[in-house]
Amino acid sequence: MILITYAISRWIETDAGKILIHKIDIEISETIYAEGKLYRPLAAQSLNQRPAIILVSGLQNDKENLSSMAIELARRGFVALSIDNFGQGSTPERSIVPGESIVDRSYALLFSQPFVDKKRIGIIGFSVGTIDILLSTEWQNFSSILLLTPHEDLVQEKISFFSNPRIHVIRPFFNEFAEFRKSGPTEEQDKQNLVNWIQTDAFQFFMLIHPGTIAEVLDQINVDLQIPDDAPLWFNSHRQTAWIREICQFLGLILWLFIILPISELLVRNPKDHTAITNQDRSFIANNRFSFVWIIFSLSMYIAAIIIAFYVNQNSDFFYKYSSVNCNIIWMSSMVIFLGVPILTQQRKKERKTVIQFDFGKILRSSIVSFSLLILVYGFMLLFSRIFLVDLHFVFPLFRPIDKRWIPFLIVFLISSSFFRLHSRQFLEGHTRKYSLARYLFTGIGCQIFFLVIEYIPAVFFQISGWEWLFALLGGSHNLSIGLQNFNGSGWGLGSLMALFNVGVLALLLILQERLFWQRSDNLSSSLICGGLYSWLLVSGTTLL
Length: 545
What we know:
alpha/beta, single chain, 2 domains, eight-stranded mixed sheet, 56% helix, Rossmann fold
């Protein structure tokens, strides 16, 4: 079934063989390269030059983030180049080559290609990626510029010196980083600078796969960079197939997770004897009220992690690459301490022998099972990524080769595995199966759910950020309210995307751990497996999500 989903995904991506796809290196310096993915229609030849589009993704995403737009552009005869910006994929951090622009280098690369029409090169940027476009030296040479959810203050500053009428700004229905604030230019400035401001009904988080948003992009590109008379007559921006590829990628992800279950049974068969797990093995704080305490404390640490990661790293390149990873590390570390200290203290107090006695044979077996499964899944991903050029993603990139990020991976793996182990020890062991899953899930992701409710519900009904609405309701001072508004555009936006990631992915992994635990009665291996998958997603893919 996984092979079938990948085959369909590849068939759609290449438009049944009509599009050539290459992973190419973009030279930044003599020894440093960025990675790009080139979508070239077979009809694009030196004697039949075609318009070209550069696609720049946002914070902590990579070239796969804009793959749906790239596929739809290539299907309609455009050459599309999706790039890994600084700090994305295998591209190094910005501090290594200060002053260089991958946007400028990508423009020069396309300009040198014989199958590209040099007079019709456009660019599409998303979120933070629009800043790189506006700050590049070549940005006024583009025949079409589309900015999706840009930094609007920077747009106003740059367009005041630019008279190119082919600038389009596409706004989402809801932008986590702007919170419904209309900070765009006035109508008089719009007419003077001939900027096309477009409002969509898509949320910022789903803009890049939303058919309506993609249709808007295709229509504007077709107007600005229309292919000559030999263009296909079937150009229809609403006839899209990329969404089917997204569904196939999602099914592939789900199948990957669930294929682990039977494999774990084949590697090591442990007796499913749960009689040894009795109520006496529960921690002294395992009661109904502790779930509520966990959520409240977890929410407090969650907010603290956002503030710490934002203010400590806001001027660092490390922040732009690992910002949400830092938030998750801080939050999970606090949860490990919150559970680990009382559990170990109680064990030392009641049963001192359990502190110093270990079943090394069981630990070794569990470790072998866990790492065998992780290596199998990672090797399977490398096979499809390196040989068949098929990358697993859904909405945002997920599983990617870790490349040079093994140290961050090991750090997150140690913390996340401890989190899964202690969380299972507290809320799963000693409970009957028929009611443990709901409580297990809610305590694991409850703080993120509360965070999202506070963030989004007031925004939908009152057109204002939930945190600002709550602060105004409590009668906060004007100065603090202004400070919260400024922080909300960046810090809370980071927190909401982090929560969206955790609610989905962490819930799936908690379900997987619960299934593995009741299948094999082995808490350690299930914790290592889920900790490894979570760390892989967090470090190699993206938490924004």
